[in-house]
Every structure is written in C-alpha cells, then in structure tokens.
Amino acid sequence: MMRVPMFRSLAVRNYRLYALGQLLSNPGTWMQRIAQDWLVLQLSHGSGIALGMTTALQFLPLLLFGLWGGALVDRLDKRRLLIFTQGAMGVLAVGLGVLATAGAAQVWHVYVFAFALGMITVMDNPGRQAFVPEMVEREHLSNAIALNSASFQLGRVTGPAIAGLLIAWIGSGPVFVINGFSFAFTIVALLMIRTADLRTPEPVPKGRGQIREGLRYVAGRRDLVLLLVLAASVQFFGANGQNQIALMVNNVFESGAAAFGTAAAALAVGALVGALLAARRDRPRVRLVLIGAMGFGAAQIAAGLMPGYLAFVLVLVPMGVLFMTYVTTLNATFQLTVDSRMRGRVMSIFLLVFMGVAPIGAPVVGLLADAFGPRASLVVGGVVTVVVVTALSALLMRAKDVRWPALLPARWRGDAPPGEDARETGADAEPDAVGADDAGEGDGAGTGDTVADGGRHGTRGASSQGAATPV
Asked: Is 142 in contact with 282 (CB distance < 8 Å)?
C-alpha cells in the first residue's frame, strides 16, 4: 500500500501512526455529531433554531478566540498540545453522555457542552493543521492532507450509520460515551511518535503583536485574500450542511434517526471519494477550488429540489465529492504556500474564516428553514455559492488575464497528448499564480516554500517561505 501514489505519505512512520490513530478515532467523532444533532431535535421538538444555535455555540469560540489560538500554537510543542486537547474533548463527550443516559439532559446542557468543545477546538484545529507538515516532507504534504480528509470522511461514512442504529437501540447518551473513549486511539498514537524525526520549526518566542503580524502577512498575499473571501461565502451555508440534512430528513421526509444516518453517510461517501481523488494530485490548483465550489453550489440547489428521500440521498453523493474537492484543495493551498514560522497563525485565520462563519450562518439557515422550509435553505445556499464563485472567477481572470479554458485541465483543452498528465504539459507546466506579483509582499512572503532537510532529524530552525498559488 505504501508504494501506491495515493498513499505515499504513509511511508513515513510518524505520519502512519498519526493517521492510524485518526482512522480509529474519527468514527466516534461523527457518531457524536449525529447524536448531538438528534438529541437537540428531540429535546427541542424539531426546532431548526435550536439546532442552529447548537452549531453556532460550537463554532463561536473559533470566531472570538481563533486568532489567539493560532498564535499560541506557533509558540507551543504541537504534539503535547494535541495530547491535551484530545483528552479534554474525550472528557467533555463522556460528561454529556452521562447526562443524556441519565435522562437529565436539557437543551441548555447541550449548548454549554457545545461551547466548551468549541473552546478546545480553538487550539486543537490549528494545532492539527500545523502538525502535519512537521511529520512529512513537502512533496508528501498535499497527499497527507488529502489522506487526513479521507480518514475523516471514512469516519463520516461509518460513524453516522452506526450512530443511527445505536440511537434507535440504546439512545443518544451511550454514543457520546463511546466517542469519549475513542479519543484514546489518537492520544496513544501521539505518544508513540518519534520526536527526533519531526521537522519542527523554531518555536516563535512569546511577544506582543504576533496576531497583527499574522494578519499583515495574509493581507500582503492577494491570492490568500481572494481564497478567504471564497471560503467565507461558501461556508456561510455549506458549513451547516449537516443541519440542513437533519431538517430535510426530519421535517420534509418525516423519517427517523436511521434515515438521517443514511443520508449523512451518503454525503460522506462522496466526500471520501473526493478526498481520495485529491490524494492522487501532486499539488493544489486554484481552478480545482473554483470548480469544486461551483459544483457544490449546483448540487445544493439540486438537493433542495429533489422530490423524494431516495433522490435526495443520491444527490448527496456527488455533492460530497465536489465539496471535498473544494475543501482539500483549499486547505493544501494554504499549507503549501505559507512561511512555516507563520503556519499556526495563518491556519488559524483560515479556520476562522472557514469555520468561524458558522455561528453567523447557522441561525440564518435555521430561520430560513423555519420560515420557508428546509428546501429553501438549501436552494438559497446553492445560489449564493454559484454567484460568488462566478464573480470571483471573473475577478481572477480579469486580474491575471486568464481565459476560461485555462481553468480546465490541459488534456481537456487539447494542450496535452492523450494519456499524458496535464501537470507536465501545456499551460499547466508553468505555475501561473494568483497574486504572484504580491507574493513577495508582507512579512516573510517569498517564492519557495521549502523546509530545511536538517529539521527532519530534530534540528530546530526549519525555514519556509511563502509561495505564490498556482492556477
């Protein structure tokens, strides 16, 4: 398996251990997500606003404290930080599980636990994002990011299906407890990692103005700014897809927990396929971000218009493929083109936008669903995504004199001989970049994102310069 290009990053021992821990833990995480959504719906008698408020409270800490979390990640040992955050998440899951199992859970209890979980993710999310480049070399980074997404989506396939059956059999409470103990797999994997093999950059010393420094760095990269605008627009509705599925299943198709788990699993199957396809690519390109986001918006519209449950579930599969194409490519673009010393802060800004808009979007989705029905919330979200992607694509082409055909693979344009990969021929051979003229601006931006080889064997002081983003 290690020699298959799709799984090449698994040849690295540390990453292999980390990936195995995630693979075993991720189903529990998705089981809890399904159990949490279903518990809220049952306690609130199917309220879309209550479901939206739960999501909002879980993401609100990222919006309020996300930048602080990124600055902290750049100063701390990421492996030790993740051991702490994963353990804390396990404790929270067990606590809510005990309340639900005892029949004492109320909606406000779920709100409190969701907010507490959000506080932990303020450090956990950028910590995990910034830790992957320490385990693998740059040529394997895009693959490792895609495999992380594939592992997460595999959990999303199995977790909801298992959760649906368990909720119908023993209730939501035990599902939370099971997830709490599943965090042990990740903690054990982190403890087994060889720290001498990590490519650890020099920790950023504690000082004033580090958050402002990160903001200036991103502001000096026009390519990153455009991608952040896209992420904010798509995620306003896209980040709440799980809520929309729950509302469609419960309120429109009037089905139970098992049907909800099946629908969520269908979306995850598509996402898993999208992540595995992304793992085959050597490097991310902006055109895939745009194509994935545009297709996802169109799929949202189609899902909202489906007349029956079966047709709705079938549309969720390509919707998942397109969403994961957009997500993995966007994530890899940020990871591969920023200064390693700024990675924690940059990824916190990315996550702030990518996930932090959910506290704003979730109540809006709930209000739309309650006022006009769940179908309307899906269709409106899809239309907004399509319009925004179209506008940003036009701005991109106008700014860089890029034509529409250039956004397609070279083999589709006829630039590459049949059977030859588009990366090696035609216009794709040159990394025409979004914002390439701006890549040297800001703090530490440059043209060659490389990590010193000495860092692999524990030499602190790995260096990385921000690179322009290839179209």
From this structure: yes
Q: 433: part of which helix (H) or strand (E)?
A: strand 433-434
Cβ atoms of residues 270 and 321 within 8 Å: yes
pLDDT digits 0-9 by tens, 72-108: 888 888 899 999 999 999 999 999 999 988 888 888 8
Average pLDDT for residues 202-208, to the nearest whole number? 67
Report the run of H or E that residue 325 belongs to, with start and end.
Answer: helix 309-336
SS3 category, 466: strand
Our separate counts of H helices and E strands in the chain read: 16, 2
User: Of 202, 184, 247, which is closest to residue 377 (Cα–Cα)?
Assistant: 247
Q: How far apart are CA 257 and CA 167, in angstroms?
A: 7
Q: pLDDT higher for 366 or 358?
A: 366
Instruction: Please say whether the beta carbons of 374 and 247 come within 8 A.
Output: yes
Amino acid at the residue 127: G
* Structure token digits, residue 240: 């709440």
Distance between CA atoms of 462 and 454, rounded to whole angstroms? Answer: 7
Enter the DSSP assignment of 440: T
Tens digit of each residue's pLDDT (9 = 90 or more) over 260-288: 878 877 887 888 888 888 777 767 677 78
- 215-255 pLDDT, tens digit each: 888 887 877 888 888 888 888 877 667 778 888 888 888 78
Q: Would you list the DSSP string of 393-416?
A: HHHHHHHHT--GGGGS-HHHHT-S
Q: How far apart are CA 371 and CA 380, in angstroms?
A: 13
Higher pLDDT among residues 457 and 320, named by residue: 320
**Torsions phi, psi for 466 (to 5 deg):** -65, 135
Strand partners, 434: 469
- From first CA to last CA, the distance across the chain in angstroms is 31
Quote the distance between the C-alpha of residue 313 and its chain's center: 22
Distance in angstroms (rounded) separating the CA atoms of residues 8 and 145 = 12
| pTM, rounded to two decimals | 0.66
